[in-house]
Specification:
By secondary structure, this protein is mostly helical. The chain contains 13 helices and 2 strands. Helix 5 runs antiparallel to helix 7. The longest helix has 36 residues. The relative contact order is 0.14.
Length: 279
């Protein structure tokens, strides 16, 4: 049964509690590696997208005659897009999975299992995403690296990149989980995810850095959690600045806490609704 405390959503206090979620993560990774050829086939779209972006931004910089636009040169823009496109292209269909479990009643079988429902799905989500990202990012990097060359190797920037991506994808998971759990109340949560996904593409900076936005749109985007999912991690690699990096981690942590509480409340309310209605 899902515990009432938010701490249970973040982690359990029993000594070996984390081990079972690590096993779920490992099993998810192994399952993906068993079908690695399918992962590579699915990553073909990443190659096409990055090739198109290389041609598009080369033309844009050539037409404008500028070496940099709003602080980004051609290489920085393309490396930024490698991060954002790889993150989004690697995301499992979590919302659809949760939506199906709730509507079919399969979620009821999880209530008496010795694990936290949200952490169980997070571990599986992260395992699948890790394998796909491990394929998508190198492929995208190969296209961009051959076009504009590699980024300078800055150990702090690359370490920061790992932390920023982990924070971003955790926030992405919590957003998707909150939408999926709305299936306790709505007929089809996939429609809500479609709206969320399009909002993330635009206001999260997946297709273009927020630095290029008009001031009014940028101000709105910076107040929303979307930019800490994609824009922040992308900018950390392409245009690393220590002050902005630490600010990103702080904002990611704050939003993760907020959505952890939200997901916990949604799940608890959904379970009560399931028990009362006998769903």
């Amino acid at each position: 049964m899902f515990t009432s405390s938010v701490a249970a959503t973040v982690g359990e206090r029993r000594p070996l509690a984390a081990a079972k979620y690590l096993e779920v993560f490992k099993i998810s990774v192994i399952n993906q590696l068993a079908y690695i050829y399918d992962v590579f086939v699915g990553s073909f779209f990443m190659l096409v997208v990055m090739y198109v972006f290389v041609q598009l931004w080369r033309t844009t910089f050539a037409v404008t005659g500028q070496r940099a636009i709003d602080g980004f040169d051609l290489g920085q823009v393309l490396w930024y897009l490698v991060v954002t496109e790889s993150m989004v292209s690697s995301v499992p269909r979590l919302t659809r999975k949760l939506d199906t479990e709730v509507k079919s009643g399969d979620v009821a079988y999880s209530l008496n299992k010795p694990y936290n429902y949200i952490l169980f799905h997070y571990a599986g989500f992260l395992g699948e995403w890790t394998v796909k990202f491990g394929v998508n990012f190198p492929l995208g990097a190969a296209i961009v690296g051959s076009a504009v060359g590699p980024l300078p190797f800055l150990p702090l920037a690359w370490l920061g990149q790992v932390l920023a991506i982990l924070g971003g994808i955790t926030l992405f998971f919590l957003n998707m989980a909150s939408l999926g759990l709305l299936a306790f109340w709505v007929e089809d949560a996939s429609a809500l995810y479609l709206i969320y996904e399009r909002s993330l593409w635009i206001l999260g900076g997946m297709l273009i850095p927020l630095d290029f936005f008009p001031p009014a749109w940028r101000a709105v985007a910076e107040w929303l959690p979307f930019n800490h999912i994609l824009y922040g991690p992308g900018r950390t690699l392409a245009h690393f600045q220590p002050a902005r990096f630490w600010s990103l981690l702080w904002h990611q942590a704050a939003w993760i806490i907020f959505f952890t509480v939200l997901v916990s409340l949604l799940y608890r309310a959904g379970v009560r609704r399931l028990n009362v209605n006998g769903g």
